[in-house]
Amino acid sequence: MRKNICLAVMAFLSCTMLTSVSAQYSLTVESAPAVNVPGNTVYRLYVNMADASDKFSAVYGNDQQNLVINTPSGTFNSAFNASWSASGINPAFVAVFPDMAEDTYATIGLEGPATGTAADPSLVEDPALTPTISSYFVNGGTGLNVNTLTGGSWYVLNTAANALPDANLRVLIMQLTTEGTVDGTVNFQVFPLGVGADQQQISITFNGTGTFTAGGAPADVPGCMDATACNYDAAATVDDGSCATLDALGVCGGTCAADADGDLICDDVDPCVGTLDALGVCNGTCAADVDGNGVCDDAEILGCMDATACNYDATATQDDGS
């Protein structure tokens, strides 16, 4: 059964032209210095989905849509992950061999072996490729070009939990750790809203880090482009009108116009310009009202406050037990 599925996937992706290119789907390449592999940079490639119910199907290449990855300085491969995918990154070993977490691998939404209803990606590839997909991801590859009629693909069935995007509507498809640069072209298949009959095959060219759309053009990144604004976004390429300033309480985009006494209470909420005394009087002089009876302690009149007592004192504000 598995063999039949693999053959069907290879046949489909080998003969299918790019049927639909949607601006809804893009590719983001992020990078960070490697922590455990000195001198290297870890690049992560994510496909950005349009809806939480979209399902990611496959990364593929063939003679019509070449899958190209260029890492001219070679890639880092941990000796403790013999797999081409993240399935070989055993969490129990990462604590002992931390460089495993920075291994180069292919994946679909996973950073380690599949658990629960997730599934490790399957791989089909033309053995005539040089290198093959699996060889590139385990042997410090400098480049991959899946360009034959049969081609190759790594994929998951749409029943796998990791076919769905994460909370940020992204699906991780590979991690590349290298001392140099990365660029290439990635082809992938998506089922919009999880409907297989509506599959889209999308090809995106990338160069370095950033967010790229079909054709390789950087995608518009909306945000505030005013460097003086409190919510300035250095990554923004299109100003979305969201620029804001700090209000009187130091809140970015806040609505407080004034806090004249600097008590961190907006004047329109706290009309007292100054301080409230113990009785809640603006700029009052009462230092304490220990019994909370609304009479300042230094103005209390001691006496009997029991109206049935023969020594009842109607002027008393604090009972003295007499």
How would you briefly describe this protein structure?
The chain has helices at 2-15, 91-94, 133-138; strands spanning 26-33, 41-48, 55-61, 67-70, 105-106, 122-125, 143-146, 152-155, 170-178, 183-191, 200-207, 210-212, 222-223, 238-239, 302-303, 318-319. It has 322 residues and is mostly beta strands.
Feature tags:
seven-stranded antiparallel sheet, mainly beta, disordered N terminus, 24% strand, 322 residues, 16 strands, five-stranded antiparallel sheet
Structure description:
The structure is a single chain. The protein has three helices and 16 strands. By secondary structure, it is mainly β. A hairpin with an 8-residue loop joins strand 10 and strand 11 (200-207). The longest helix has 14 residues, at 2-15. The protein starts with a helix and ends with a strand.
Spans where pLDDT lies below 50 across 5 or more residues: 1-8, 14-21
Indicate the radius of gyration in whole angstroms. 33 Å
Shape: elongated
Helix content: under 10%
Number of DSSP strand runs: 16
| Continuous helix count | 3
Mean of residue pLDDT values: 87
Distance between the termini: 97 Å
What is the string of SSEs from the N terminus onward?
Answer: HEEEEHEEHEEEEEEEEEE
Share in β-strands: 15-25%
Largest sheet: 7 strands, antiparallel
The class by helix and strand makeup works out as mainly beta
